[in-house]
Amino acid sequence: MTRSEKLRLIVQLSIPSILAQISATVMFFIDYAMVGHLGEKATASVGLVESTTWLMGGLGMAVNMGFSVQVAHFIGANDFESARRVLRQSLTCSLIWSLVLSIAAMAIHSYLPFWLGGTADIAHDSSLYFMYIGLFGIFFQMEGLAASMLKCSGNMKIPSALNIMMCCLDVAFNYFFIYIMDLGVVGAAYGTGMAELITAALMMYFLLVRSPMLGLFRGYGGTKVQRYENSFRPTGDVVRTAFKIGAPMGLQHLLMGSAQIVSTIIVAPLGTVAIAANSMAITVESLCYMPGYGIAEAATTLVGQGIGAGQRLLTRSFAFMSVGLGIAVMTIMGVLMFIFAPELMAIMSPVEQIISEGAAALRIEAFAEPMFAASIVANGVFVGAGDTLRPAIMSLSSMWGVRLTLAYWLSQSHGLRGVWTAMAIELTLRGILFLTRLWKGNWNKKL
After folding, report:
1. Closest CA relative to residue 56, chosen from 286, 253, 264
2. Considering 87, 206, 411, 418, which has the largest number of Cβ atoms within 10 A of its Cβ?
């Protein structure tokens, strides 16, 4: 392939995924905008548990990736029967895991707001919001699994279109539950859960029925008994490989999510305005870095299939070009975020003090976006190669050793702006570390 052909393929795979990532961010953006107009206490009650809900989502994603990376390798090797075998087992394992997470959410929901430093005036709504988000986690888990499998087969359009649809459904359901049913913060959880339920059902339909490579209910030879007898029972080889790939990612999400929770605890003493501004600014910033995650998903697919096919030079070329594209796109997004930070925050909340604090935080973070892009897309490359342990160690060392230490120290004198300054410094350092590993590391040893 020529350079232009490779770049065109990366862009073709990235655009649907970028749109899906942005739509998911817009969904959270809309949630916050709707809740934000209920007042700063309602906003803070959601923002307080946001990092914990992201932690649960990250743990679910790690399980899904442990199986979908295997599927990408088998598809690259044209071994579709083995890919379907992994898919069947992933359905069982992901379902069990989602139930475990939901039970955990139920067990801790009433205590969590107080553990995070929340006050009694926001604890009730905060705990109920977290509980319902946890109960709806099974829909999120299965939707994520189906989307990941479809993307690893090269089908970016269907998951992206369905995620955009989920954003539209979220708006409609949120309006209904928050305003018409007058359920407030809890209505936002209901709306998100209903949108995820419908999207998960459709995503599974396109994976299990319509997918030509992975469809389990399509005729691909063998009798009905041969196809389905004990076929969903996990086997040692598949689960071990999934654990080898997914466990470092799960540990990374656990400790990174825990670090985000610690960051929330650092912010909590700064007051309700700081909590609301911090959570809203995180949501706005995600509009900037979601394109990076979209490109990272394309990189995971191309690298995973390239490794399965044994294409060494092509795979390395895809890796470097994907990272370069991610840096370019997120640099532009960072410039736009710096310019329009006040306007973006004003969409989220009418409170002038929240707008001011959030805009200042976003403008600090804008300088870190190029290197943040490098870490995001390079990590997508490593995941596609099944190289997840060392990148996880690098991320955790950077997060716990640099960001949290600096955040606590700077928050004492500079408040919320100090916390975001620490974040920008840490993300820049992490990007440099990931670029160094991409260039010099042995992530492509499977080639």
Report:
1. 253
2. 87
At 446, the pLDDT band (50, 70, 90 cuts) reads low
Task: Please say whether the beta carbons of 421 and 393 come within 8 A.
Answer: no
Number of Cβ atoms within 10 Å of the Cβ of 217: 12
For 365, residues 6+ apart whose C-beta sits below 8 A from its C-beta are: 281, 285, 337, 420, 423, 424, 427
Residue 79, Ramachandran bin (φ over 0: left; ψ between -120 and 50: alpha; else beta): beta
For residues 106 and 126, give the distance between their C-alpha atoms in angstroms, rounded to a whole number.
13
Euclidean distance between CA atoms 124 and 112, whole angstroms: 10
Which of 424, 419, 432, 392 has the alpha carbon at shortest distance from 288?
424
Separation of alpha carbons 246 and 5, rounded Å: 32
Number of H helices, E strands in the chain: 16, 0
Asked if 145 and 95 touch (Cβ cutoff 8 Å), the reply is no
Contact by Cβ (8 Å): 423, 342? no
| CA 343 – CA 329 distance, rounded (Å) | 21
Cα–Cα distance, 88 to 264 (Å, whole number): 38
What pLDDT band is residue 230 in, cutting at 50, 70 and 90? very low
How far apart CA 155 and CA 66 sit, in angstroms, is 19
Distance CA 404, CA 419 (A): 8
Alpha carbons within 13 angstroms on the beta-carbon side of residue 67 total 30
Q: Kindly state the average pLDDT of the residues 130-149.
A: 92
Q: What mean pLDDT do residues 21-40 have?
A: 72
Q: What percent of the chain clears pLDDT 90, i.e. is strictly above it?
A: 42
Kindly report the number of other CB atoms within 10 A of residue 225's CB atom.
Answer: 7
Burial tier of 324 (Cβ tally within 10 Å: 0-12, 13-18, 19+): middle
Calculate Rg over the CA atoms of the chain: 21
What residues contact residue 302 under an 8 Å CB cut-off, 6+ apart? Answer: 9, 10, 13, 315, 318, 322, 384
